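Ticket #4471: structure export looks truncated?
Reporter: QA, pipeline team
Priority: medium

Steps to reproduce: submit the single chain below to the structure queue and open the exported record.
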Amino acid sequence: MTAEIGQAAIYLSVLSGLWAIGFLCVGLRTRNPNAVRSGRNAVIATFILISIATGALIYGFVTDDFSMRYVVEVSSAAQPLLYKVTALWGRMSGSLLFWLWLLTVAGAIVVWQNQRYNKQTGDTLADYALIPLAIVQLFFIILVTGLIEGVYNPLARFPNGQVAPDGAGMNPLLQTPSMAFHPPTLYIGWISLTVPFAFAVGALASGRVGSDWILRSRRWTLFSWIVLTVGITLGGNWAYRELGWGGYWAWDPVENASFMPWLLGTAYLHSVMIQEKRSMLKLWNILLITLAFQFTLLGTFITRSGIISSVHAFAQSDIGGYFLGFILISTAGVVGLIIYRWKRLKSANRLESLLSRESAFVLNNWLFVGLTLIILWGTLWPIISEAINGQKASVPEAFFNQVVIIPGLLLLFLTGAGPIISWKKITTNNFRRMFMWPLVIGLVSGALTWGFLAVIKGNTSPIYSVLCVSAAVFVLVAIFAEFYRGARLRAKRQETSFLNGLNLLIQRNKRRYGGYIIHIGIVILYIGIMGSKGYFLLESDSLALGESMKVGAFELTMKDSFEREYANYRRAGVIFDVAKNGKRIGTMEPARHFYYKAGQGEQDTIESAIRHFGVNDLYIALGELPRNIKGGDIVNVQVYHNPLISVVWIGVAIMVIGGIIAIAEKSQYSKET
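Actual output as written to the record:
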């Protein structure tokens, strides 16, 4: 009966979704508080109903209910409990239900957050925001009912009371801790962008297009940015450890689908500061948050339509067309509201100089949007090329690596220049006091880097590395100088120590200085990317037991093989003795995991061996394993030396810490008339 209760809850949620939209619209139109309250209650009811359906599906996984089609497709009796639960988002039907559940959680939180505020002030902005939020929920509810061609109800049973003896099990690549957390983290990040989008639409609908909607949704946007940052990084870490190619980012279409909303969300977070400070860029901010939201749906369209090949994508389905249709219709709705409110969206102030903080933020916006469009073009090029000449042309990783360099370096420079340049117009005093020493130290660092790479390393074209180091040092010096000046002044005023002054400085303006810490993390991330992408070493060889190979200063000798049995897979691999500069430092055990899937035989995954040396990694991956390694069969081996790879993860960690500090600042609501 559990599955039937879950299905009934989904069907009832169609009614609660329609109820929420209808009563909120009528109540706000007629200023009827009882109707508005009923609409809010319907949003809560939708959350309860979808929670029941989601809980019913999880119960089916935990109890191995193989009468349910979705459970059979993504779970098995031998699957560990963790992966039975995470099978919820293992394929399309369940992932859509999980997405919907998170949407309803967001709706319930918006109702809860604004309940006291509404009582005290009579403010209705959040109620206007609930309407687009409920519309998005209703779209996903209709999808998971199973009434739409291309997706079935995740709680549906097999016909005629059939029960499978066992399930096929989850995709082996997903049975890792990273993939237990990476997809839901991305989903949470994407879905939380729906809330600021809903507030933007609510602001347009109500005519309150000032800064109030930004303040009311600021924490949601920051939360989304933090979670997306973590989710994207978890995906990169999964790719690094599980795919056996020694890298963490390959510009895969689904990687791009997660990255593009992050870029637009980052642009939006910077742009809203100009609206708050100077009452400018109102239209920019509406468009940026709309694009960020629509790109989350576009990513879902790319993932589920089957139009683009990806190691992450779901099987081809007609459902992609529904997403594309919803994107077009919802975008048209926003455009219509923008036209209707056009006069109110005009800026109260104008740019007074190209050399000002306002201009730096506008340039920042254009770079982020331009970078997003470049990535979108490369992602969709297989479709475009097929439409032009009938053949899908793949886009190599090198294309993305080349075209993002210049805008990426400009954004890195603005990371330091934006926060220290004057409002309205830069003055000679501001330039001398804020820019001169960071620029000088940055240029000197770039020259030293050029000398090191060109002379010592023999690199004949280190220009991008030089520019990266020069810009990175400029940013770090500029930001640390900001911390130093502020902390020293605070310590002097409070007659306390410098460290206590630094703490008081950050506590007084968490948003500003949390943002500076994020910028420091971004600089460190850039340095890590530069080292790991530009200066890695790769050696491939075919070895028998007792044979050795060299990678840089490392020598690896294959001394033995092994095979071990686990609950739902077997692990087979080889043991390497590792020496550095002639000195033995230990062993490494690269392997492959072999999973048995019902009706499909064995499927294997690469389990790389990774050893850390400071911020550098030694990385070993195996090709197909022969049957008789001990008898002399040859093993194909790839070994990477990845310099500065750990700096990538350190940079992201600092970004997240800065985000947490920034989000801790309380928002100051101001009711607009």
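Status: closed, not a bug. The export was complete when the record was re-opened. Leaving a note from the reviewer for reference: The chain has three domains: 2-347+358-376, 405-534+652-660, 537-642.
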